[in-house]
Amino acid sequence: MSPSARRIWGLIYRHLALYRRSWPRLLDLAYGPVLQMTIWGFTARYVLNGSGGALAGTAATFLGGVLLWEVALHSQMGFSMSFLEEVWSRNLGHVFVSPLRPWEMLAAFLVLSALRVAVGVVPAIALAWLLYAYDLFLLGPALLALFVNLLVMGWWVALGVVAMVLRHGAGAGALSWTILFGLTPFAAVFYPIAVLPAALRPVARALPAAHVFEGMRAVLGGATMPWAELAWATGLNLAWMAAAVALFVFEFRTARIRGALLVIGE
Fold it and tell me: Whole-angstrom Cα distance, residue 165 to residue 247?
């Protein structure tokens, strides 16, 4: 194993060790997705029963939207929380007096984010199948492309949150719980972009998630995957990721010059 890989694994292991003997932490990983699936599952069943089965497609889009949006939420939270753990424990200064490079820290957080998504979302997918006979894998091969785009969206949003913490201190960490929820109305999770007022549609079209969910609804409606929507989602993710990386690099350098890395946990 190369020195760089060892440093990345060391930081990953440091965070995995926090979960090894802490069942509340493990429970927290799956609590949100399972709760959301339970609530929206019963809502979808109510809609389905009330329509005599005529709104089966609508019920399916509710469940698919909940499951896929949890990918973005958990991706962002997994990344942000890993960084905030270092801030809250006042360990950030120790991390960066070690040989660990900033990009290695980010690589470790990406892996931890992906693991958090897997542990958090898989139980909700299983619950949807057991309780509501809903199989997310009916989306077919398109599911992987939709999944990856939402995963990446969570990453660049988290990078933006990390940059704000470096700039404004630990108080900005509250953005971890609010920023993606604030974007939910524009992400077109449960309804098409056309439902939004005309003035807000450009905001929705600037978000990769809106194109992902437009594609999901098309596939669930029996159409083939609209690859134009997927191309838009991928292109927007690349653009937003580049902007988030540039912002992080700028704020990290500024924080290092100001000496903020040593006091950011206070």
Answer: 12
- The domain in which residue 223 lies consists of 3-262
Residue 264's identity, in one-letter code, is I
**C-alpha distance across the termini of the chain, in Å:** 36
Per the structure, the count of domains in the chain is: 1
pTM of the prediction? Answer: 0.89
**Distance (Å, rounded) from C-alpha 87 to C-alpha 162?**
10
Alpha helices in the chain (DSSP H): 3-20, 23-50, 56-88, 92-97, 102-132, 142-168, 175-183, 201-205, 208-220, 227-258
pLDDT, tens digit, for every residue of 21-62?
A: 777 877 777 788 888 888 888 887 787 776 655 455 667 788
User: Is the torsion defined by CA of 163, 165, 167, 172 positive or negative?
Assistant: positive
Burial class (CB in 10 A: 0-12, 13-18, 19+), 199: exposed
Residue 9 backbone phi and psi in degrees, to 5: -65, -35
